[in-house]
Design a protein that fits this description.
Length: 151
């Protein structure tokens, strides 16, 4: 760890797309995440001739660049990708279960030197409790956050 943070090296792939529909972009994101991308995001940009576009960015393990590139080239209109290896600083992660009035929820904790500096209810856990209880997702998030802070 560096200064109490965990570190790793990952690769970021970027490409600019000015002719892709939102449906294609969404499906591409789903495929990249299913194939092991650590994160996928779109940034609105303007390209030459003032064309609105998006920059597709993918964060992946260093050894997974080729499968990510294959998906991008097959699923989008990209003709090229930029790649860059970057070092990430990360909090140590731990998961705890909290009991709410709606059911049990998993909370993700981020620690630095053993001290909790972040706490956030896990989306999938909250969604499952929301579906089972019929309560709004926001209510589950709020209840989980309150329960964790009462500990």
């Amino acid at each position: 760890m560096s200064g109490g943070y965990e570190t790793d090296t990952v690769t970021r792939l970027d490409t600019n797309l000015d002719d892709s529909s939102p449906e294609i972009l969404g499906a591409t994101m789903d495929k990249l995440l299913a194939a092991g991308a650590l994160d996928v995001w779109f940034t609105p940009i303007h390209m030459k001739k003032n064309r609105p576009a998006v920059m597709l960015s993918v964060l992946c393990e260093v050894g997974h660049v080729e499968p990510m590139a294959d998906i991008i080239f097959r699923e989008t209109s990209a003709f090229g990708l930029r790649t860059e290896q970057i070092v990430r600083l990360k909090l140590e992660r731990r998961f705890e279960k909290v009991q709410t009035e709606f059911g049990e929820v998993i909370v993700k904790l981020g620690l630095k030197n053993g001290e909790v500096v972040q706490a956030a209810p896990e989306f999938e856990s909250c969604r499952a409790v929301s579906e089972k209880s019929g309560q709004p997702l926001r209510a589950i998030y709020e209840a989980a956050t309150r329960s964790w802070h009462r500990k």
